[in-house]
Amino acid sequence: MLKINVAFNYKFTGLIIAGLLFVYSAHTNANDAVQMYTQCATCHGNKGQGNELLKAPVLAGQSAEYIARQLNNFSSGIRGSHEKDTLGKQMLAFSQSLDKDKDVPVLSKYIESLPSISQPKDTVGDLKNGSRYYQAKCGACHSGNAQGNPSFKAPKLAGQSVDYLRRQMQNFVTGIRGTHAEDKLGRQMAMMAKTTSGQELEDILHFIAQQK
Ligand code: HEC
Ligand code: HEC
Fold it and tell me: What average pLDDT score do residues 87-105 get?
């Protein structure tokens, strides 16, 4: 009887220790993430709301998978290494300060947990045309209301700064983004970016700006 009790107690204590370790590590991960994010907040805002003046995009509402991929793309030069990509280069030092296997997943999960922010956007365009063009050319990958689609690895566009979206479209068209040999997804998007321009693109951006 005593033997059984001892064995049971050992098992039970083991479980408690495992539980405590789990809670402790989850807690430190959260603290690490908040700590790590403070260096990002200077440009991307403390809520991930972005900063139009610094041309830093909104991060809140974006999936952890997309954030992690972009951070790794920046640090390995798949994104931001083009000589004319002065804004992308700003990300180089910050992405390289992160450990790909330890920091990037923790920080990306933290950013994913930040609530989406909806900010007023002063776009002009034809909403009806924009909706039509968007559904025909973008919706299949980025989803019907620009929420993004993990199956196609397509990021959320809704809620993003329109100036940032327009600049990325230009970057894809001019080869500043999406030309690196290992940037398969960027190359795919560069092909799509070349299918639209001018007023049609403005209408598409106007449609995206209306999505939450
Ligand atoms: C000095 C300002 C600055 C700091 C600090 C900074 N960023 Fe950035 N970040 C930018 C700019 C500017 C861009 C847009 C680059 C472009 O236009 O291609 C960007 C782009 C990004 C993107 C790509 C977003 C997208 O939609 O594709 C991610 C992800 C990102 N930053 C995450 C971070 C994280 C995480 C940190 C902290 C470790 C950080 N940034 C620190 C300025 C900054
Ligand atoms: C075949 C699927 C596909 C289609 C169609 C498509 N995209 Fe994309 N798009 C992607 C993928 C995948 C990415 C992410 C690329 C990467 O990881 O760097 C992307 C990225 C983007 C980005 C960069 C977002 C950011 O946060 O930096 C913009 C802007 C964009 N797409 C706009 C559009 C618009 C506008 C259309 C329609 C004209 C469109 N896309 C059509 C797959 C697609």
Answer: 96
Contact indicator for 33, 110 with CB cutoff of 8 Å = yes
Question: Where residue 16 falls among pLDDT bands split at 50, 70, 90?
Answer: confident
Q: Is the CA virtual torsion 164, 114, 186, 202 positive or negative? A: negative
Q: Tell me if 173 CB under 6 Å of ligand 2.
A: no
Which domain range does residue 196 map to? Answer: 7-210
What digits encode the pLDDT tens for the residues 27-83?
A: 667 788 999 999 999 999 999 999 999 999 999 999 999 999 999 999 999 999 999
Pick left, alpha or beta for residue 80 (phi over 0 → left; psi -120 to 50 → alpha; otherwise beta). left
* 1 in a structural domain: no
Any idea what the CATH number is for the domain that residue 166 is in? 1.10.760.10
Q: Which atom of ligand 2 is nearest to 183's Cα?
A: 18
- Ligand with an atom nearest the CA of residue 149: 2
SS3 7: helix
Q: Is 159 in the pocket of ligand 1 (CB under 6 A)?
A: no
* pLDDT tens per residue, range 142-178: 999 999 999 999 999 999 999 999 999 999 999 999 9
Atom of ligand 2 nearest to the CA of 69: 17
Mutate to test the pocket of ligand 1, among 32, 86, 94, 173 (most ligand atoms within 8 A of CB): 94
* Residues 120, 196 contacting (CB under 8 angstroms): no
Instruction: State if residue 166 touches ligand 1 by the CB under 6 angstroms criterion.
Output: no
Determine, yes or no, domain membership for 158.
yes
**pTM for this entry:** 0.91
- Determine, yes or no, domain membership for 105: yes
Ligand 2 site, residue 92, Cβ cutoff 6 A: no
